[in-house]
Structure formats: structure tokens, C-alpha cells
Amino acid sequence: MMPGTPATPLSKIRRNLYSTPGGSKVHEEKILVTVRLRPLNRREQAMYDLIAWDCLDEHTIVFKNPNHERPANPYTFDKVFGPMCSTQKVYEEGAKDVALSALTGMNATIFAYGQTSSGKTFTMRGITEHAVKDIFEHIKNTPERDFVLKFSALEIYNETVVDLLKRKSTSLRLLDDAEKGTIVDKTQEQIVQDGQHLRQLIETCEAQRQVGETALNDKSSRSHQIIRLTIESSLRESSGSVKSFGASLNLVDLAGSERASQTNADGTRLKEGSHINRSLLTLTTVIRKLSGVKRCGHIPYRDSKLTRILQSSLGGNARTAIICTISPALSHVEQTRNTLSFATSAKEVTNTAKINMKEIARLEAEQRSPGPSYFMSILEEKDLKIKQMEREMEELKRERDLAQSQLESERKVKKVQKESNQFGPSAQVARCLSFPGENETVPIHSSDTPQSQTRAPVQRKAMVRRSVTSTDPSMLVHEIRKLDERQRQLGDEANRALEVLHKEVASHQLGNKETAETIAKLLSEIKDIQAVRSIADESVTGDGANLKDEITRWKSQAKDIQSLERKLENVQKSIDQLVFSFTNSEEISECKTPSKKKKILPFNLSNSANMQHLIRSPCSTLTPSRKVMEYETENKVPENNDAMPSDDTVVGRCKVTPPKSDKSFKEGSPAVQHSNTVNVKKMQRLFKNAAEENIRSIKAYVTELKERVTKLSYQKHLLLCQVIALEEDQEAGVDEPDKIDESLPETWQLTFEEERKEIVMLWHLCHVSIIHRTQFYMLFKGDPTDQIYMEVELRRLQWLERHFSDLGNASPALLGDEPAGSVSASIKALKQEREYLAKRVSSRLTADEREMLYVKWEIPPGGKQRRLQLVNKLWTDPHNMQHVQESAEIVAKLVGFCESGEHVSKEMFELNFAHPSDKKTWMGWNLISNLLNL
Ligand SMILES: Nc1ncnc2c1ncn2[C@@H]1O[C@H](COP(=O)(O)OP(=O)(O)OP(=O)(O)O)[C@@H](O)[C@H]1O
């Protein structure tokens, strides 16, 4: 049994037919698709071919299964014409309506599509004849209009366009016109006098057309023929204002759609076949693409002459009817199936025809003598207006409801504020989001009275919860502003540091050519940072801005922050390069002496102090205080600063050090030369050491700036989470705090488990630091007071996941080896963190513990980098909570974190980042001369 194409119920084929002439200005409708089944021809009869198709009704055709197996699926179309059906009926029901649209100013196209000998030419001749008759009939019956009818005819043969009106036509070029689309250059057009004249012209063209004999058709049309009637009409002067239409009617008789092999083609026929098929293949592709559920992607109109010329008829400004002709013979069943499949696609294509008015005076003209279409259009306009007003009313209602719910939630917030007196939600928000030290009015646990301590967990939970869900918008605006200020400060500090670096290095002419280049690069980066900052400055709105404006502005600034981060990253790279160039110059000079020198600048990544800076996933929880200590050690200014010689003296000495003016040196006395060489070397080393000191200092400083920018950006993310929550709650009018209080603790444990699973999954998807995961996992075990931490963590992770997905337009987990932007930064940071932890395996675990773990985690004995292999396996299976638990235990051991919360307290998860002023800020560049200790 052969499979059939599933039928489309007729009810699903949306048709929008309308009587001719008239209709609305823009008309969206599907292509009218009909099928005509011809009788068996003599050849087929002679071969005792069987009839393979049955017309079930006026719309349905089905394959008659000769083996009487399972019935095949029927095909449904706008109309199916059986073998006994007259061409007149085919015209009336399958072409007339579309064809006569051209009289009302709409482009129209009638196609005949089918395999050779299926009856295309036979059908199109009849259609053309009837259409011509009707057109002239209409002209005769419409005396108030002037009609101009022009005739032209083209043939596409072997992908060459020729003019059928010219006896010896050369190939015509296709040109693109902005208004008309593709036009055929220099086509001859004849003004048609009357019906008789038109028939003559058609005959002339038919005679000109490429016809040949194929195995299936003695007079097979070997080309695509397009007869084009251009109809222009205008109202006569006596009727007042002028209304002018212009439209074309294309009558297209395509060449046979069969495969070349089926026509026993060789030589010329084969060449024709390939060209014919190119046009038909493109036509099929175009139709298939246009019929897709979503009409998107590239439609290859330009791939063939046929589709270029008929572009507007295929999904464009035209009404189109396709008559698919088929043979009933069983021997042609495959071709017939192909044709029906094409027809099935074609019926899904939608065109948007419009009346091509040359002068828009229609309304005035029709107002004087209004016809039915005038009233129709007035009604349509009214309908539109009513719909618009309904929409506006809906919008107003929505706004009113929103305002009411906002008012309601404001009232509730005020009520809660009164009740909890000292712990107002605004204060809580400030505490949640701000740097310690800024909100001294907010008491911290240690200062609570015993009474308040017993009350504290519940109150605190409710308040923190409220801070996330029911916040005064003006408070959030204030917080956003504060974060902006931090961003600006960071920008300023970065600039200051870099400018001084530039001046200092330039004035002392340190380093070689690469150094100079690096400095130049740094300078341009400074400019970039300034540019970023000035953009941010420009976008700051006035104090009166509302929350929505702030959010919009902040969202637009997200790029600035990223950009600032990138700049700082570049600056760090440049500094590394600078350090490298110093090291190189040092090595070169050292090479001259046989003694082996150790490398001086320990800035490589394996340096454990610097390693700390690299663990900087947004969720990194390395405590600022620890880092500050490291920076302090690194940036320590030499204690004997005060005892150093004054600038002038040293600079003076520096200036005299290069012995250019020293005559004895020039003369090259060996003794003097030796002593000077020693001095120069010593001086060089001192310079270098001093420069290193400063570069080390600025490097650490830039690293810190980067961290601060990252945290700043993270704080903003959290703020956004709060804003989203606020908006959601306002929209829903949910009284969250009360609901939560009531629901606890019965449902909390369940919720906790669920949330924890989700958090673990999101950690995995967002490549969050495994130290952070461990600390969080170990600290929050389901205590009711953990609720807020869980929710904040969940919200921030959800935000991050969405953000990553937006960046890569895919889930971060799916980004694979080529992740984008911050996803890649997180993956990199995680990788570095695993390397860092691997190094701690030996020192933190005993040999026995290690061996046990290797066995348990299936690390092969004698394998390379077993420690790293082990760490790489940790936190990799978010679905397995046992795995999660065990991973957490190992990481906790490696970082020296135990459940009691050594180094870590729950409060740190509230994002209380240290205030910049608490941190070691860059104390300014130490003049190299100050650091010289001669
Ligand atoms: N519906 C029909 N009723 C009677 N005869 C028909 C019908 N359709 C086609 N024929 C006859 O079948 C023969 C082939 O028809 P026609 O030339 O129109 O086929 P075609 O599809 O144009 O083929 P080609 O692609 O090779 O040009 C002609 O002799 C024609 O008269």
C-alpha cells in the first residue's frame, strides 16, 4: 500500500473569497488551489493503463488502491474537478474570481502545474479564453470607467527569458525595481483593441512557443509561458474625482513538472529538463518555504527566472490560483503524487493582495455616489475604532487595579512598620544591600537584648522576607543610586592609578620598546575607562525618576559595568606584560653574568596569594577581610620611607648616574669603566626593584578593583531580583509576609528540600564556585530561619541562569566548549578554583584519607594528576544528593571549613560586602626615587 498525504479538512483551509469587483484595500488570503483530473488519453488507453484516482466529492480525491488493501488517505483541496468536468466549470470555480480581481486593481495570477501531458496547456487555453471573454464583458458593462488593456507574453526556456511577441527575440534581462519588484527589461507591450485582437495575440505567442515531442506528449510545451494582461482603469471625468487602478493578470502555463528520466529525455530534451526543473524546483522550494508554519527564513525567489518574475504572486501582493492537472493513469501515480504534494503545500501559502490605486481619490468619488464597498469600508473603520477603544478601556482597568493593589501593599508595609518600630523594611533593605557601617541604626545580633534575641529569628525572618518582597520603591531607587556612586568611584580610582603609572614610567624611561608599547596601550585603556564612565554619567537621571526609569537605566548600564570589568581585565594583562618586559630586560642583563639568578617577580598564577584573586565567581565567598590582609602585605609601603633621601637629591643622583657626561667613561679607562658598570648595574637593579614594588602594588590594586566591580554588579543583580519580586507581588497583590509566617514550620521542610535541589541544579548550570556551594550547603540545613537565605540564593541563581541564557541564547550547560562572555569567565574561574583545591589535597588530607577517596571516587592508581582528577569529580552530579553531600564534605575539608562555620557565617550570604573605605585602597604611586635606597 502506498502512503498518501493526510488530508486537510476543508474547514481548516481559510479562504477569503469575495465577489468581483470590489473588496477591501488589503486582502490577505490563501492561494486558491484546485486539482483537475483529465480522462485517460488514447496512449494510456492503448496500454490498458488503469485509472488510479477517485474523486470522492467536489473537494476530495483519493488513490484507488488496485489491491484493495487499506484505503489511502484522501487529499482535500478548494475544488477537485473530475475527468468529465468542463473547462468552463474549472474556470468558473477555480480561476474566475481571482482572474477578474485584476479589473479592480489587484494583481492576479493563474498557474497550471502538473506533469507533461496532464492537461496544463489544454486547461490554460480554456481559462485564458474565458477570462478574456469576461474581461471584455466587464469592460462593456462598466461604461463609467476607461480601461486600457495591454498584452505582453514571455517564455522562459532553458532559463532564458524571451519575448513571445517578437519574432526573433533575444534574451531579456531581469531588473530589480524598488516599487514594482522584478521587471523584465524591454518587454514589448501591445494595447489590446478588443477581444478578437487579444485572441490573435495569444495565438501568435502560442505559435512562437517552444514545443517538442516527448515520450508522453507529441506537442509538449518545453517552456514556461507567461501571458500578462495589464489592466488600467480610471473613472471618467464626468464622474468627478479620478480614481485609477492598475493591475496585472498573469496566465501561466508551466512546463511539465516530471523528472527528466520519465520522459525518455536525452540531448536537447534532457537539457530542457534540467532547466525546466531548475525553475520548477525553485518554485516548489519557494512554495514549501512559504507554506511553513512560520513564514520565516530566506525564500529563494532569486534562484530561478520563473520565481523572480512571479515573486509577487507567491506570498506577495497578488491573488493567486493554482490549477494542478493530473493524469488518472496508474502508470503516472508517482508524478501525480508529487503534483498533489505540491498542491498541498501551495494551499498553505498566504498572499496579501492590495488594490493598486494610482490616485487616492476613491473616498471622495464614492462619497458622492456611495456604493456598497464604501459602506463596507466605513463599517470596517468603525469596527477598528471600537476595538481600539475596548483595548484602551482594558488598559485603563488594568492600571486602576494595579494602583489599587499598590496602595494596598503600601498600607500593609506601613502597618508592619508601625508594629515592628525599629526594624522598618526600608532599614532592612538597606542592611541587606548596603555596606556595613553605613546603616548604624540597624542593630546586629550581638547588640540585641536577650529578649530581643528570642524574638529575633521570627522577626528577622519576617523582616528580611519583607525586604525582598515588599519594599518601598523609593528605597530601591536610593540603593541603585548608591551603587552607581560606587561604580563611579571605582572608575575614578582606576583612572587615577593608571595616570600615575603612566607618568611615572614615562618620566623614568623605564623598560624597553615593548614597555613603551604597553604603556601606550594602558593609556588608551584609561581613555576607554573614562569613556565608559562618561556614558554612565550621562545616563544618570534626575532625582525625581521613578523606579521603572531607574531599572531601565540600570539595565542599560549593565553593559557599562561589563565593559569596565573588561577594561580592568585588559589593564591587568597590560601590567602583566609590563612586568614581563622588566623581567626580560633583567634576564638579558643577568645572562651576561654567569651566576644563576632567581626570577624576581612572583606574579604568575600559581602564586598562592594571587590565586585568591582568581576565585572570583560572583558567588565567591572568600571573605573580604582575608583579602584585605593579603593586599596589605603586598602593598606595604617600605617603613623607611621617611628616612629616604629627598626627591630632588635622588632624582639628581639618578640624572647623573647615566655617565654620558663623564669624560673618563667615554675614554674607556678599564678601571673607571668597571666601577661605572657596577654602579649602573646597581642603579638598574634598584630602579627595577622600585618599579616592581609599584607595579606589584598597582597590580594588586587593579585586581581588587576588578573584584569590587564584580561584586557591585552582583549587588545590582540582587537588587533587580528584589525589584522583580516587588513588581510580581504588587501585581498579584499577595500578602507574602503573613502567608509565610502562617505556613511555617509545617510546609517549610518540604519547601526547603525542593529549593535546595533547585539551587544545586542552578549552581551546576551557572558554574558557581564549588567553595561557595560547599559553604552554603553546609550552613543551610533547613532551619526555619534559613528561609530568606534560600530564597535570596534561589532568586540570584535564577537571575544568573536567565542572564547566561540570554547571553548565549542557550542554557549555559549547553554552551559546551565555546561559552560566551561571562559564562566563559565563570567556567574559567571554576577551573582555576578546582586547580587551587587540588593543590590542597596533599596538605589537607592524610595519605590514608587520600587513598580512600581515590578508591571511592574511582581514580585509577598510578594515574596522572590524581588530586586534580579527584577534585574535578566533585560537585558534578546535581541530580544525586548523596554525591552533593560527599562533595561538600571533601571541599569543606580542603578549605578548612567545618560545619560550625569557621571563616564563614550565615550573614555573609546576605551580601554585606565591605564598604570600599574598609578595604585597603591604593595609597598612590610611590615615587620610584622615594623607594631607591642608595
Ligand atoms: N481535461 C481534458 N480533457 C480532454 N483532453 C485533455 C484534457 N486535458 C488534456 N487533454 C489532452 O491531453 C493532451 C495533452 O495535454 P496538454 O498538452 O495540455 O498537456 P500539458 O500538461 O500541457 O503537457 P506538456 O507539459 O507536455 O506541455 C492533449 O492532447 C490534450 O488535448
From TrEMBL:
GO annotation (BP), single: microtubule-based movement
Residues involved in ATP binding: 114-121
Keywords per UniProt: ATP-binding, Microtubule, Motor protein, Nucleotide-binding
Recorded superkingdom: Eukaryota
Keyword Nucleotide-binding: yes
Listed InterPro entries: Kinesin-like_fam, Kinesin_motor_CS, Kinesin_motor_dom, Kinesin_motor_dom_sf, NACK_C, P-loop_NTPase
Region (Disordered): 1-22, 400-421, 442-470
Kinesin motor domain mapped to chain residues: 30-349
Cellular component, GO annotation: microtubule
Compositional bias segments (type: Polar residues): 444-456
MF (Gene Ontology): ATP binding; microtubule binding; microtubule motor activity
Gene3D superfamilies to which the protein is assigned, alphabetical: Kinesin motor domain (3.40.850.10)
Protein family according to the UniProt entry: Belongs to the TRAFAC class myosin-kinesin ATPase superfamily. Kinesin family. KIN-7 subfamily.
PANTHER family documented for this protein: CENTROMERE PROTEIN E, KINESIN-LIKE PROTEIN KIN-7B
Name of the molecule in the record: Kinesin-like protein
